[in-house]
Amino acid sequence: MTLTLTAAPAVPAAREKAPPRAWAHRWPLLPLIATVLLVAVPADGTGAGTVFGVPAADLLSGAAVLVCAGLLLGRRRRPLTPAAAVVLGLPVVGLALATVTAADPMAALPGFVRYLQIFVLVPAAVLLLVRDAQGFRAVAGALVLLGLIEGATGVHQYVTGSGASYMGEDIRAVGTFGPGDVMGMATVVGYGLVAAVAYALRARSGTSRRPRLWAGVTAALLVVPLTLSFSRGAWIATAAGALAVIALTGLRQAVRALAVLGAAGVVLVGGFGVGSEMISQRLTSITEVTSAPDRSVNDRYTMWAAAAGMWREQPATGVGLKGFPAHRDGHASIGLSAGSDTAGAGQEFRKQPLLSPHNMYLLVLSEQGLVGFVALVGSWAALLVGGVCRLVSCRARGAAAVDCGLAAVGLMTWQTVDFLYADIGGPSTVLTGIVLGLAAWWALAGPERADAA
How far is CA 107 from CA 111, 193, 211, in A? Predict the structure, then answer.
């Protein structure tokens, strides 16, 4: 008796191994992606772009937190690892203490809610809702798309002379944020540029060159609106974030990437006519902030000194959340101007009051004291250091999601450097929570997430 073996019919490759998580199960990411994209919706003092007075992006971030809470209750599992709970929960200590010790705790309460949203709840929601590397790439991709939208708007403003006023001309690129928030467009374009650089340099095996090429082209294009924002702080932060990404890809690739970025910068930034002269002056002013500061720099130094004075007066707990404006005049010198002049981009001339020191570290130190400073800045430092350590480890063992690590570390570097020249405020603030959440996902999530493609 002869036994005949018949080969089983071949199984199509697409059915042989189904994706571990189909996109149908990624619906919890939708509030996060919507939060990012709705930042582009212009909000003005008339209530446009808001829902019940709340910006649409902030409303969607609250929806993301509620979706996260609902999923956790339905699954009945421990939401965070002990390390993640400590790192993300640490800022609550300083925030609560600064609120209850404020001269007017009720006036400080809105500040407590805002800080809790940006630095605790939204990052935790991102950490829990982003389940794998594909989810991370979707949210980071939304940041890139937002940067392209705002960047295109900003370039149009420069070309048509419909931007914010700068040196007597309405040419400053501000996107949909208006002249009252000149850092808004620069922030989202900086995020998008750093993320695009990370994906252009990603080291995933088996991927085609086309996505990397498009990511590189996107990064090069975003240099233009970033330059036309005339925002020195955003220039420095973006350079730091991009250099961090490049340095962590390896020496050979770093040298090649720096050469390409240098050539792209010369080609894209050069030849702007009168704009090139303004850009050159703005770049030169970075090195002259101590020898020949302009009025904006003088105001910033004055507010920094005022913030330091508040901290010396209340070193442990600070003057309380939202307390900087009330205590500013008592600690600032007479050299502080009445406010910054804003005009253009569809807005009449206005005097915008100076209500913060434009330095997040000094703002935290003055309003929350040393306790809040250690808690909040310590949380950021843990995310950055943890992200770098995991990235080095994943590169050594050839993990598939190294591109996510590059983006997370680059964005976190951008944020920590930018906080030297800016603080929270404006429609783009909610994106700070998204960026911190992406950094937390990379630094604090389980190792299986970093190893999965």
Answer: 8, 38, 49
Residue 351 bridge partners (DSSP): 341
Residue 127 three-state SS: helix
Full domain range(s) for residue 243:
29-37+53-294+343-451
Q: Is residue 317 part of a domain?
A: no
Model confidence, pTM: 0.88
Residue 77 falls within a domain, yes or no? yes
d(CA 203, CA 172): 37
Return per-residue pLDDT of the chain as tens, 453 residues: 444 444 444 444 444 444 544 555 778 899 999 999 999 987 655 555 666 678 889 999 999 999 999 888 877 666 788 899 999 999 999 999 999 999 889 999 999 999 999 999 999 999 999 988 999 999 999 999 999 999 999 999 999 998 888 877 888 999 999 888 889 999 999 999 999 999 988 755 455 677 888 888 899 899 999 999 988 889 999 999 999 998 888 767 667 666 666 666 566 555 544 456 666 666 665 555 555 566 777 788 888 999 999 999 999 999 999 999 888 878 877 767 666 767 666 677 677 777 888 899 999 999 999 999 999 999 999 999 999 999 988 887 777 788 999 999 999 999 999 999 899 988 899 999 999 999 999 999 865 555 555
Q: Is residue 243 part of a domain?
A: yes
Q: Does 250 map to a domain?
A: yes
Q: How many domains does the chain have?
A: 1
CB atoms under 10 Å from CB of 250, counted, come to 14
